[in-house]
Design brief:
Blueprint: E1 4-9, E2 25-28, H1 34-44, H2 54-59, H3 63-69, E3 70-74, E4 80-88, E5 97-105, H4 115-128, E6 133-139, H5 143-151, E7 155-158, H6 161-170, E8 184-185, H7 193-196
Parallel strand pairs: 5-6, 7-8
Antiparallel strand pairs: 1-6, 1-7, 2-3, 3-4, 4-5
Length: 198
Amino acid sequence: MPHRIMMIRPKLDDLHSSALPEPYTVRWYRDGDARHWTAVKSAADEHHHAPPDYHARLYRAHLDELRRRQAFVCDGSGTPVGTGTAWWFENLSDPSLGKINWMLIAPAAQGRGLAKPLLEACCARLAALGHTRAALYTLAQRLPAINLYRSFGFVPLLRHSADAHAWAATSPLMKQPFAEAEYLHAAELGLDGAALSG
């Protein structure tokens, strides 16, 4: 059973700009983009098969927020080939922690240097919206994604002992394993580990 783990970037005031290669651009959600999000997710995510209305289930209650929080990477024709969302943890009372949600690049566009600029755009948007740190969920077997997040300053966020066991198995497989001192504990950061485990 895949273990869902968390990573955190403790600061958002030290972001480094990552330029997209030409002809790609980043834009923010427009009406009708749910179908593009669904197409990218269906193509890119082999671990989670969502129903056609999954985007609506996640976001339809917050359309105004979506327009300033959901990014799309578009190719030269304007077609979205990647997406990421600068969201928040709806079950947390702490507004300082922003959430990087559903970072996805369509397989045909992978390997072109799109993911890091997309991640930077989402983290910068979180900072612009008042969040001072960012966290995300991923799966332990998603090593390319974990390597990307590590290269952008994300480190393991431990909520409970199962996380420690998962990272003990995952970290040695990474391009640059984490040192023990890099692991951060939710309780020590003033975060509700139980809420983050829901």
